[in-house]
Amino acid sequence: MAPYVNNDDTVVDYSLQSVKKTHSEVAEKTFTNKSNALKALSQGVTLPGRPIFSDVEKARNHMLNHMAGAFRVLARHGCVEGISGHISLRDPGDPSVFWTNPLGVHFALLKPEDMILLDKNGEFMGGNSSLPANAAGFLIHSALHEARADVNAACHFHSVHGKAWSAFAQPLEMINQDVTIFYGEAQAVYSDFGGIVLKDEESEALAKSLGSKGKGMILRNHGLLTVGDTVDEAAYLFMLMEKSCQIQLAADAAAACGRQKVFINDEAAKYTFEMTSEPDSLYAEFQPYLQYESAMTPGGLQY
User: Fold this and answer.
1) HEC states along the chain?
2) 166-190: per-residue pLDDT in tens?
3) pTM (2 d.p.)
4) N or C: which end of the chain has fewer CB within 10 A?
5) Looking at residue 230, which CATH number applies to its domain?
């Protein structure tokens, strides 16, 4: 779950580590019984996983800065198509409401204060009141958050290779190590297309197609959608799925010329999925992108 604070202000989920703590202390505090992937992948000290906060305002500030950072990173990687595309993020103080981006602001320019807070009915609850939210985006994301209590963040963009691969309405093949993060039920395909999502029925169908274990979904003739425990996880998964579509298209082009594809077997794919797909690892995967974004835009967001 995302950082969540009870009425008595006790933290019941992940929090931002104190800068005075060592990496080892942080790792010991943030790992769960099943999340030893970062430990296994680290030689020496262990990379910290999802952060820990002492109060809801610090949690919200961290999350909104990372949300704005995710938009900037995705913009730098070409995931911009006019005003299409959106991220949603549950509020750490009230999981029944979520933050989303406004229409009409370039993703590379978004700041925490630009975000809009909506309830499950689409009613404005706070944040930026000067611009509207995306109606189709609200329907897609509200249905996802309603159906999946474990989903705290969702990303949907009309990226180039995602749109190209979506024309086939087929899942990605296990043809390299990285794509195994979408092994098995972690990947879904929404095989219908009814235009811009402006009806509850279609948004509910999208959520149903993703299933209870889905991390990424290919939307036929539309694009990609990814979800995560944190906005960092969802954004990293989106970038990975977009690149995986590009690689799939390239591999298929080579196969059409007579080259034989070699697939990863189920046992190896499942093992690699289990080693790379847990939330602490996926949170850590996105941090170098934020570091780079911070270096490119000094004095901006707080990562």
Assistant:
1) CCCCECCCCCECCCECCCCCCCHHHHHHHHCCCCCCHHHHHCCCCCCCCCCECCCHHHHHHHHHHHHHHHHHHHHHCCCCECCECEEEEECCCCCCCEEECECCCCHHHCCHHHCEEECCCCCEEEECCCCCECHHHHHHHHHHHHHCCCCCEEEEECCHHHHHHHCCCCCCCCCCCHHHHHCHHHEEEECCCCCCCCCHHHHHHHHHHHCCCCCEEEECCCEEEEEECCHHHHHHHHHHHHHHHHHHHHHHHHHHCCCCCCCCCHHHHHHHHHHHCCHHHHHHHHHHHHHHHHHHCCCCCCC
2) 999 999 999 999 999 999 999 999 9
3) 0.86
4) C
5) 3.40.225.10
